[in-house]
Amino acid sequence: MMVGGGSAALVGLIFVAMSINHEVIIRNTTHKNRAINMLTGFSAIFMASGLALIGNQHLEALGFEWLVLWVIATVIFVRGYVIAIRSGMSSVGLNAPRLAGGTLCYVVEVISAIFLILGYDSGLYVAAVAIIVLFAFLISGAWLLMIGIYEDRPK
Hints:
By secondary structure, the protein is an all-alpha fold. It has one domain. Helix content is 84%, strand content 0%. It is built from six helices and no strands.
């Protein structure tokens, strides 16, 4: 669950980058939704890590907490991506493979939570792999956000 600390740090960095470039992000639907998705994803990883560290907690309780968390994060991710695609404002990294890859990461997190609710501790291992992959996916998304902002800055 070490990715939780990294996620918290990256949320802070993205927030700073967003506040420096807020005009560009506000005007562009793609950038706005990508920023929301990055903040939501990194925050969800941080919260999932924190929930996993609660002592004397049954796996079923952790599974329920994670299920609620990851369902909300999944809906935010898919909704934001669909809105960004429909807006047609910035195409930097906005494609079906990224949508499918990100959605798969979130869905695997939901499945791992269901495993925990059903009493299968293997859900922890599934979640760990999915969180690491999602973390890498979100880092690349944050990079694409910065590239998109740079390309759309007034000269």
